[in-house]
Specification:
The protein is α/β, with parallel strands linked by helices and 231 residues long. The chain contains 6 helices and 13 strands. The strands form 3 sheets. It has a 9-stranded mixed sheet. Strand 10 and strand 11 form a beta hairpin. The chain is globular, with a radius of gyration of 17 Å.
């Protein structure tokens, strides 16, 4: 498949995107990686791609470059997906941009700045919650080093296939690192949904290079590409 990977933003993409590029190519895909989202507004160029992969954070973050999508880029992305193409959204890429409330209609929800949170980066078990889902073909429960997202906005219509379970705890959070109570529970870490005629595959794992090196993570992403581009 011919894949467009959009990268860049406030996350260690200099670590993770090269790993992503390598394992997608090793699986036989053609991959174009860019931090320039203007391609999304070029319908002719977008027409050559089978799927769009987001490993990027496209919101206005204080002290970081403004990577918000223009109106033309947003419209181009919506048209690309709704016309029947695939969209694979990784980790913080599901963060709701401060300028685009409709984005979570595409992704089915995700991170909300100022509301969502997670325990410290560390090792935890990822559980397969729907073994018949194509996203976890060849996958059983596994251990990874990553972030377990909590307090997300979740839309109806998502088909969840993996989860993570956490115990209640108090952890430093926010710019001032104040103690925050974080709940016990089981939280969704991956789901699929439809947007128009397109297929959307959301995987909340994938914080850094180490996370991307997890073999099961790579297999799930590859499964996602296959699912999102299947006729």
């Amino acid at each position: 498949m011919n894949l467009l990977v959009i990268s860049g933003g406030r996350h260690p993409y200099e670590e993770s995107t090269p790993v992503l590029n390598d394992f997608l190519k090793a699986a036989g895909h053609e991959v174009t990686v860019t931090e320039d989202a203007s391609v999304l507004a070029n319908a002719g160029q977008m027409g050559s791609y089978d799927a769009l992969v987001f490993n990027t954070r496209r919101e206005n973050v204080t002290g970081a470059p403004d990577l918000r999508l223009s109106e033309g880029e947003r419209d181009g992305m919506k048209n690309f997906i709704s016309s029947g193409k695939g969209f694979v959204c990784l980790h913080i890429s599901g963060c709701l941009p401060d300028h685009w409330a409709e984005y979570h209609e595409i992704t089915g929800g995700g991170w909300i700045s100022g509301t969502s949170f997670h325990p410290p980066y560390g090792q935890f078990t990822v559980s397969v919650s729907n073994s018949s889902h194509e996203g976890v073909s060849g996958i059983s429960n596994f251990v990874t080093n990553d972030e377990l997202y909590m307090g997300l906005a979740i839309k109806e219509g998502n088909s969840v296939f993996i989860t993570g379970t956490a115990e209640a705890g108090v952890h430093p959070w926010g710019p001032d690192r104040q103690p925050k109570e974080m709940p016990a529970g089981t939280f969704p870490l991956g789901w699929t949904r439809q947007y128009g005629s397109g297929k959307v595959f959301v995987l909340l794992l994938g914080h850094d290079g180490q996370s991307f090196q997890t073999p099961e993570f790579q297999k799930i992403v590859l499964n996602g590409v296959d699912w999102a581009t299947a006729g």
